[in-house]
Write a structure and sequence with these properties.
The protein is mainly beta and about 425 residues long.
């Protein structure tokens, strides 16, 4: 954190401490730890919030999955908020990566038409919000090569002063992917799983040793952390140009999970799944209805509200339609009723926190209420979320949420290829498939 911003945070913190005994929003903005670049979706500063990709040519303010055809990169824009009342000098760059998110050997001049440093000079200040923030927008440049890309946002031209990293995938349509959801036959936990069988049809594409040089990543609800990676074809049918990925031992199967829990804070009055709103001078506090574990319960089908599979949509129904700068931040309180504390740690997860385990989304057990509690600083909008238990080095969402083969989920298939003399992996095909929608 630079000295100017550190000074602002310290002054504001003192101001709120002397003005009110209530928890101010600046209590959520903590000093950053030592920054180390990771090739993953990550926010490196606590005051950076609501990071999402949007389609910049679409007037609908709905975040998009950052997977685009190679001629569609210019339609992507990364947007985020800096929860301070002053603008910063932010920069961006792109790194081409292999299928495993290691940096490729391509030089920037080979995948970009311009110098690989971009100033983020498109920003707006929030309007009539209790919590001040600056909203930034970065329109991505066109690239010349397909593949994985890591977008890096940093401060003041110092690439070690990291702010945000975000993954995006740029694909060619050199091959066709045919996929279908297959019912898992059997008993026990197998009936709670969903299997995705698929084939890659490469036809006239000139692929060198496709059985070895083609690998596939299969994701559920666009999550990298739970993706099945390094899938290679079970059979290569050269006579028809087909790579067969129809496995027999559940190598391409996922737990079905449950429908996501959700709430909506985009209304002036209490919105969906909200029990109470306490209005304050500096910020509003929103209390969600108390949740319960869903393991062993019936499948929870969302009929009144469409499941958005863990994502979030910023919205402010009381404004003029410019939610990016009119939506305010609230302190959202979560509670999960349990008979006793679990062995391990309980977290609230969703795309709004990059599915990351950290102190901000970790819940604390309150024995007097027999419930886990936590609070987060979130911008007005619709949020999907889930509870997860972390113990013995493993994350398990099924213990608190249950798992059902009937659950509605989205899957996507990313097909990578690296020629024998290639210097980086291309993405030669892509396909999405909805299950039980």
């Amino acid at each position: 954190m630079n000295l100017t911003k550190a000074f602002v945070i310290s002054i504001l913190s003192l101001f709120f401490i002397t003005k009110s005994n209530a928890q101010p929003w600046y209590d959520f903005i903590l000093e950053a730890e030592e920054k180390t670049l990771v090739y993953d979706d990550k926010v490196y500063e606590n005051y950076i919030r609501s990071v999402a990709f949007y389609n910049r040519v679409n007037t609908e303010r709905v975040p998009v999955i950052p997977v685009v055809p190679i001629n569609g990169v210019r339609r992507l824009a990364l947007e985020f908020d800096d929860i301070t009342d002053d603008s910063e000098d932010y920069y961006a760059k792109l790194i081409h990566c292999n299928y495993d998110w290691s940096p490729s050997s391509f030089m920037p001049i080979e995948y970009l038409n311009e110098y690989n440093e971009y100033n983020l000079n498109d920003f707006e200040f929030s309007i009539n919000t209790k919590v001040p923030y600056v909203h930034y927008r970065f329109n991505l440049p066109q690239v010349k090569i397909s593949g994985n890309y890591l977008l890096i946002i940093y401060r003041g031209g110092d690439e070690e002063d990291l702010i945000i990293t975000r993954r995006l995938v740029v694909y060619e349509e050199a091959v066709r992917v045919g996929a279908k959801a297959q019912e898992v036959i059997g008993s026990g936990e197998n009936i709670n799983k969903q299997q995705i069988n698929f084939s890659v049809f490469y036809g006239g594409a000139n692929l060198e040793i496709p059985g070895e040089n083609v690998v596939v990543t299969l994701r559920k609800n666009f999550r990298w952390q739970t993706a099945i990676k390094d899938l290679k074809p079970l059979y290569v049918k050269q006579h028809v140009g087909e790579l067969d990925f129809n496995y027999f031992n559940l190598e391409n199967a996922f737990q079905g999970g449950n429908e996501f829990r959700f709430f909506d804070t985009g209304y002036r009055q209490a919105g969906l799944q909200i029990e109470n709103v306490e209005r304050g001078d500096e910020i509003n506090a929103i209390y969600l209805y108390t949740d319960k574990p869903r393991e062993g319960r019936v499948y929870n089908s969302q009929r009144l509200q469409n499941d958005i599979n863990g994502r979030f949509i910023i919205g402010n129904n009381a404004g003029s339609g410019e939610a990016s700068v009119e939506a305010d931040y609230n302190i959202v309180h979560f509670s999960l009723k349990t008979e006793a504390a679990y062995e391990g740690d309980v977290y609230v997860l969703g795309s709004f926190n990059d599915w990351e385990l950290n102190e901000q989304n970790k819940l604390t057990y309150n024995s007097s209420l027999a419930a886990y509690e936590g609070r987060m600083l979130l911008k007005q909008g619709r949020y999907d979320y889930t509870y997860a238990l972390y113990r013995n080095g493993k994350l398990n969402e099924m213990i608190l949420e249950g798992s059902f083969g009937l659950a509605e989920n989205e899957y996507d298939i990313i097909v990578y290829y690296k020629p024998l003399a290639g210097r980086g992996d291309r993405v030669i095909g892509y396909q999405k498939i909805d299950v039980n929608r």
